[in-house]
Design brief:
Layout: E1 6-11, H1 19-29, E2 33-38, H2 40-45, H3 48-55, H4 66-71, H5 74-79, E3 83-89, H6 91-99, H7 105-112, E4 117-121, H8 125-129, H9 131-142, E5 146-147, E6 151-154, E7 160-164, H10 168-179, E8 188-193, E9 198-199, E10 205-206, H11 213-224, E11 228-233, E12 245-248, H12 252-262, E13 267-270, E14 277-279, E15 299-301, H13 305-310, E16 319-326, H14 330-341, E17 345-350, E18 362-363, E19 365-369, E20 372-375, E21 379-380, H15 381-396
Parallel strand pairs: 1-2, 1-3, 3-4, 4-5, 8-11, 8-13, 11-12, 13-16, 16-17
Antiparallel strand pairs: 6-7, 9-10, 14-15, 17-19, 18-21, 19-20
Helix pairs in contact: 1-3, 1-10, 6-9, 11-15
The protein binds cytidine-5'-triphosphate.
Cytidine-5'-triphosphate (CTP) binds next to helix 13 and strand 16.
Length: 397
């Protein structure tokens, strides 16, 4: 899928810049050509010589290079590519992009280009979470910039959290998804998945048996149809799919925040098994056992994420799909749930233990929409996902 594609790779000045060397190799292995551009800061972290050696092309560094300006002006350089990839996209570079600054070659190219732009942010977790960066991210998304990552994990600066550059295979998968001209190309779809964990104290939590298998399969199916997928997942058993914008959360409240940050989207599928309640006033320290004395937990209601999004007055996704996990009167309960929550479709399933659906590899669902209830035969969760993704593509047109 990447064969013959021209990628203009803008390397920003983050510690993660070294990963670009591997990225360039992998892109070229897949038949893509890479035209590298480095910011001044990037040159402090990787040498232009290594970059050009791997790219097989010289590195573009200067805005005012008269020889090059005569050969190929920066406007032209920005337009010959099929895609401009910024990796790592530092907080500084994102801010400049969001504001339309064009003080050096990299930012000038980003302003001048008429080709799609994808960024792979990487920065310290506090910088990523800073309201300024989140504001810039929202602006960039609004401008149609595609975003891959960042991932959560240990960071070079010794902190932990979101901010790590996506792994090279994930960046490649996002690029492949972009170039895969499936029916959902250019569409942005949100998927929630997995259980949530609601803390009792720092070591104990309340959870449910959701494995995340169905939500993950749906995200994968949407990616393979060309969608840009924002995948918001609780602590699931199954690994998250490749090629999605990944947000890993624990609690229902964090899931709601991640969902709201991901909007606007064309469609949203809420496959997560969100805990309806959290422990009110979870203890900051471990609750000690006292012989003969039972702790009493009191609960507070969690936000209903699906209902919140389905009932949004402005910015509601064009298609909102919920799941209904029921153990009896599946269609009746799910039909009522669709009304109550205000979503367009409900995918209802019977999660009674004897069905083996929760945590299993198969699912038997009923799709409830304005057109009534449509029972699908029992099939693998992957097939349910493919069918649902196909239906979604048809509905979005
Ligand atoms: N859901 C959500 N936020 C919640 C609870 C549920 O987004 N706090 C979403 C789920 O992702 C799913 C749908 O709502 O798409 C239905 O979830 P379900 O657990 O079946 O419904 P509940 O609202 O919890 O109703 P009940 O427990 O009474 O069946």
């Amino acid at each position: 899928m990447l064969a013959g594609k021209r990628i203009l790779l803008i390397i920003g000045g983050g510690i993660a810049a070294y990963k670009c060397l591997d990225l360039i190799r992998r892109l070229r292995e897949r038949g893509a050509s890479v035209t590298p551009v480095m910011t001044r800061a990037a040159e402090e972290l990787v040498t232009p010589l290594s970059v050009s050696a791997l790219a097989g092309e010289e590195v573009h560094r200067d805005l005012f290079d008269l020889t090059k300006e005569a050969e190929m002006g920066h406007i032209q350089l920005s337009r010959v590519a099929d895609l401009v990839l910024v990796a790592p996209a530092t907080a500084d570079l994102m801010a400049k992009m969001a504001q339309g600054l064009a003080g050096d070659l990299a930012t000038t190219l980003l302003m001048a280009t008429d080709t799609p732009v994808m960024i792979a942010p990487a920065m310290n977790v506090r910088m990523w979470e800073h309201p300024a960066t989140q504001r810039n991210l929202a602006l960039l998304r609004g401008d149609g910039v595609r975003v891959v990552g960042p991932e959560a994990g240990d960071m070079a600066c010794g902190e932990f959290g979101p901010g790590r550059l996506s792994e090279v295979p994930d960046i490649i998968a996002a690029l492949e998804a972009h170039f895969n001209a499936g029916p959902l190309a250019g569409r942005r779809v949100l998927v929630t998945s997995g259980p949530t964990h609601e803390p009792i104290d720092p070591v104990r939590y309340i959870a449910n048996r959701s494995s995340g298998a169905q939500g993950t399969a749906i995200a994968r199916a949407l990616v393979s149809l060309g969608a840009q997928v924002v995948f918001v997942t609780g602590p699931a058993d199954v690994a998250p799919p490749d090629g999605v914008v990944l947000h890993q959360v624990e609690t229902a409240q964090q899931m709601l925040e991640a969902v709201e940050a991901a909007l606007p989207v064309d469609a949203a599928i809420f496959a997560a098994a969100v805990a309806d309640w959290r422990v009110d006033g979870a203890s900051a320290s471990k609750i000690k056992k006292e012989v003969g004395k039972m702790p009493t937990l009191s609960f507070a209601e969690n936000p209903d994420i699906l209902a919140t999004v389905a009932q949004m007055k402005t910015g509601r996704p064009g298609l909102v799909v919920g799941f209904a996990a029921e153990t009896d009167d599946v269609v009746a309960h799910a039909t009522a749930k669709r009304e109550r929550k205000g979503c367009d479709w409900i995918v209802a399933n019977d999660v009674s233990p004897e069905t083996g659906i929760m945590g299993g590899s198969e699912n038997a669902v009923v799709l409830i929409s304005d057109d009534g209830a449509e029972a699908w035969p029992r099939m693998g969760k992957d097939q349910v996902a493919e069918r649902l993704a196909q239906r979604l593509a048809e509905a979005l047109g």
